[in-house]
Design brief:
The chain is globular, with a radius of gyration of 18 Å. Strands 1-7-6-2-5-3-4 form a seven-stranded mixed β-sheet, sandwiched between helices. It contains eight helices and seven strands; from the N terminus they run αββαβααβαβαββαα. The longest helix is centred in the C-terminal third of the chain and has 23 residues. The chain has a single domain, classed as Glycerol-3-phosphate (1)-acyltransferase (3-Layer(aba) Sandwich), CATH 3.40.1130. By secondary structure, it is of the alpha/beta class.
Length: 248
């Protein structure tokens, strides 16, 4: 019945309407309406699950996302994540999450992965983990790249947010990435495909010179990838320190 998933999706549609987001979807026919599929999406903001999940519902799919286990432990959000049958990922025991995701794929479901692992502070495509490629190869599911841009302007990492009405959001779906060869080769192809899609999306997006939400390569003031990697490491170190303090 998927009552919770349908209810959350309806709530998101209401939120999008309230913010008057101008959402454009391009080439969603690449996402099959049935059968196993791995959706590999870029990660640039806190609403990414909502946009990719909304894309899935357009194609009559319920996308099961792999997400950090900590999210599933939150009192309210965790209950919704479990009810929507998403898959928790423990950083120290990630193999279990991959096995569960592969089980879902063999059952004919759609599995969503943010292959960069964490939000990209540069808003470009970061290096990818091999999980998406490995799942597709293990199950024979098509590996579909998905890129979205604009939603991060509403809410993203480092307290960046802008609730301006009418923000344009573009979601673009690419054709399946060939999955023959080593997983590293497939992952490289996937990243290349995602980067090309993002380039096309930004090329048609109404950009603003110097905007914080625009990658530096396109004239924005977002951190360059090298600077973004340094900021990622600093944020990770702060997280480690907080966890160590809680264990004392």
């Amino acid at each position: 019945m998927e009552l919770v998933y349908r209810g959350v999706t309806a709530g998101l549609r209401t939120l999008f309407a309230a913010l008057m987001l101008r959402i454009t979807v391009i080439d969603d026919h690449h996402l099959p309406t049935r059968g196993p599929v791995v959706l590999a999406a870029n990660h640039i903001g806190y609403l990414d699950f909502a946009f990719v999940g909304w894309l899935g519902r357009r194609r009559r799919r319920f996308v099961r996302f792999l997400g950090k286990s900590g999210v599933f432990e939150a009192p309210v959000v965790g209950a919704f994540m479990r009810a929507m049958k998403h898959v928790p990922v423990d950083r120290e025991q990630g193999a279990g999450a991959l096995r569960e995701a592969e089980h879902r794929l063999r059952a004919g479901e759609a599995v969503g992965v943010f292959a960069e692992g964490t939000i990209s502070r540069s808003f470009e495509v970061k290096p990818l983990a091999r999980g998406a490629a490995a799942m597709a190869q293990a199950t024979g599911a098509p590996l579909i790249p998905v890129v979205h841009f604009g939603g991060h302007r509403v809410l993203t990492v480092d307290g960046r947010r802008h609730l301006r009405f009418g923000t344009p959001v573009t979601i673009r779906v690419g054709p399946p990435v060939p999955t023959h060869g080593h997983a590293d080769e497939v992952t490289a192809r996937l990243r290349e495909a995602m980067a090309a899609l993002l380039h096309e999306v930004i090329g048609d997006y109404p950009v603003e010179e110097g905007a914080w939400w625009l990658p530096a390569a396109y004239g924005g003031s977002a951190p360059h990838p090298e600077e973004a990697a340094r900021l990622d490491e600093e944020a990770l170190e702060r997280l480690r320190e907080r966890r160590a303090a809680r264990r004392r």
